[in-house]
Write a structure and sequence with these properties.
The protein is α+β, with helices and mostly antiparallel strands and 630 residues long. Helices cover 49% and strands 18% of the residues. Helix 4 packs across helix 7 and helix 9 crosses helix 19. The chain is globular, with a radius of gyration of 35 Å.
Length: 630
């Protein structure tokens, strides 16, 4: 065919075709020379570019991670694009520097090491073994090729080797360790009294003018949050399964190919006698062997279990564990149970709990079902399998379509037969429809790319076989509620702030008296403040608020037999007066071997991290780094 084209493509027609084909390539080349790109660069590190899209993806991933980790405590304002982007970009610059350094240092990871690492990933295991089909599905769901995924794993392995190679070389001396223990394990005996802010609270004393001034200073506390309305399209295997045509012959063939999935799971009724290893393993094994011999000679299993078994959950019931199936017990025990015949005495079987003597008393399930008996289950499984193939094919198309037409979901929806759906108002706190209720969607909706630029989001995977793309239809900036609408709320907040200020002023006055020689016990008694005692460490102490413990360590050491004093305002506006009566330094010699090793490892980690930061600083000092993020 190519030869025929070559023979016929002659004259002016051929040249016209060549010119028309050449123009786009020429323009593309010019674009590259001019530095024009559809994905602007936000930083360059010794010639390696970091693009807007890369940065936005990493910001979304970090925000989603923090949202899931913090749960209800997540504050969207703290994790806004404005605050996150500069920090994440600096982290990406560090990663680029380390990757370049690893190349310069000749660090490599073999293909065999990468393969072994992938095979060991828990998320790619099925029944304790690496599952290739699961691996392929996982790679597809992340929009990667196998080569791309393996490149990421290789890069992460090199980075881990690089970091450990620097951090693990930190040297810790005996003096370093002793000083760390002295300070780190230091405890302080204290007394403290609370000056309650509510004692100064008088809402009625706040005038309208004072309330309005507080309102003007604290408008952020009285805002209606920023909100958006979304349009979205989704790919869901559950919906696609309904589209799969059912061919009886194919369903039957699916059943033949997957018979094992439609067999009722076998269960076994088991009883056992547990002989734990309590210091002398030989003694425990010999006792178990003697019991096995007695059972084989006709001894009553239940009687021996009640007398000898140390399993508190089953001994009183003659060792009966009830019905068990696979995946419930520890593996050596499970293997023995499912290899035994009913009525057969098995053992002794060694597990982490000790030696077991086992008897299977009954078996149920495990019988092979006919096609007719499980027809509905087979059809559902067939539909699901076919739908998954359709899903991953359409997922790739969806990603391309929403990127090619970033200002609308309609072309992608029409091409893939999807319905464009619409939300009500949502904020950064959520309020999403159930179908798309995910922190990932909130993160994408309020990102610069989607909200600021008006583009479609990237494909957002809500589950392994459920993905959505969203875009913002309407947007309202955060607005401050009118003063008259929140007047009472403002008055109460102003009164609390005033009360806190008065408690602080009273506390600082009393603190000056303490430092001039007054006694905390006398002050507390004269003013009706409750006086408490506690022994606190740097990580807090029983009976003392965390802020009191921290303030106790900010105070100097007691001198000349007199306490040292300090003060602190609590989160709710109360003021605490603190007297440090005694400092008890940590003692390295008082630690046992395990505790010393733990402290040594912790200090080595701290020093190693400091050395690693030093390496990064040196790399940054030598590199040509240009940041264009606005």
């Amino acid at each position: 065919m190519l030869q025929a084209i070559r023979e016929k493509a002659q004259g002016w027609i051929a040249w016209t075709i060549v010119i028309l084909i050449s123009i786009p390539f020429a323009l593309f080349g010019i674009q590259q020379y001019l530095g024009v790109s559809a994905d602007p660069v936000v930083a360059s590190v010794d010639g390696t570019d970091i693009t807007v899209r890369q940065l936005e993806r990493r910001v979304r991933e970090f925000r989603d991670s923090m949202r899931q980790r913090l749960g209800p405590a997540f504050n969207a304002d703290i994790f806004s694009d404005k605050l996150l982007k500069p920090q994440v970009l600096q982290a990406m610059i560090d990663e680029t520097l380390l990757r370049q350094a690893a190349d310069d240092w000749g660090m490599r990871v073999s293909d065999e090491q990468v393969a072994a690492s992938i095979r060991s990933l828990p998320g790619l295991q099925n029944g304790g073994k690496f599952d290739m089909s699961l691996y392929e599905a996982t790679v597809r769901s992340r929009g990667l090729t196998k080569a791309g995924f393996e490149a990421l794993v290789r890069e992460e392995m090199i980075r881990a080797q690089q970091q450990s190679g620097i951090r693990d070389t930190a040297i810790v001396t005996h003096t370093d360790l002793a000083e760390q223990v002295r300070l780190g394990e230091q405890r302080r005996q204290i007394r403290y009294a609370r000056i309650p802010a509510e004692g100064f609270l008088d809402v009625a004393a706040v005038s309208d003018e004072e309330a309005r001034q507080y309102y003007e200073r604290s408008q952020r506390d009285f805002q209606v949050p920023e909100r958006v309305k979304l349009a979205w399209i989704q790919l869901d295997v559950k919906e696609l399964a309904d589209e799969v045509p059912v061919d009886e012959e194919k369903v039957r063939q699916y059943f033949e190919d997957h018979r094992g999935e439609f067999v009722a799971e076998q269960e076994r009724r088991v009883r056992h006698i547990l002989i734990p290893v309590e210091g002398d393993e030989d003694k425990a094994r010999q006792q178990a062997e003697q019991l096995v011999e007695q059972l084989r000679q006709g001894a009553d299993f239940a009687a021996l279990a009640k007398e000898h078994s140390k399993d508190p959950g089953s001994a009183a019931d003659g060792g009966d564990l009830g019905w068990v199936n696979r995946g419930v017990m520890v593996k050596p025990f499970e293997d023995a149970v499912f290899a035994a015949k009913p009525g057969e005495i098995t053992g002794p079987v060694k597990t982490e709990f000790g030696y077991h003597i086992i008897e299977v008393t009954d078996v149920r399930g495990g019988a092979e079902a006919s096609f007719e008996q499980v027809r509905d289950k087979v059809e559902a499984a067939y539909r699901r399998a076919q739908a998954e193939e359709i899903y991953f094919e359409r997922l790739e198309r969806l990603a391309d379509l929403v990127y090619e037409t970033p200002d609308s979901l309609a072309p992608a929806a029409e091409a893939l037969g999807l319905k464009v759906q619409h939300s009500d108002w949502i904020t950064r706190s959520g309020d999403l429809p159930p179908a798309i209720d995910s922190p990932k969607v909130v993160s994408a909706a309020f990102s610069d790319d989607v909200l600021g630029e008006g583009n479609n989001s990237d494909v957002i995977e809500l589950a392994p076989t459920h993905a959505v793309v969203v875009r913002v239809e309407e947007h309202e900036e955060a607005t401050v509620k009118p003063f008259e609408a929140v007047k009472d709320q403002v008055r109460q907040a102003a009164a609390r702030a005033r009360a806190s200020d008065k408690a602080r002023a009273e506390g600082e006055k009393r603190l000056a008296e303490l430092r001039a020689g007054a006694d905390l016990e006398g002050l507390a008694k004269a003013n009706g403040w409750e006086l408490k005692q506690a022994t606190v460490g740097r990580r807090g102490g029983e009976g003392a608020p965390a802020e009191v413990a921290r303030a106790a360590f900010d105070a100097p050491r007691p001198a000349d037999g007199k306490p040292a004093h300090g003060g602190v305002v609590s989160a709710n506006g109360d003021y605490f007066l603190i007297a440090v009566d005694q400092v008890i330094d940590g003692d390295l010699d008082a630690l046992d071997k395990t505790q010393r090793e733990q402290r040594l490892a912790r200090l080595r980690q701290v020093l190693g991290s400091a050395e690693f930061r030093g390496v990064l600083q040196a790399l940054r000092a030598r590199a040509d780094i240009e940041v264009t993020l606005k």
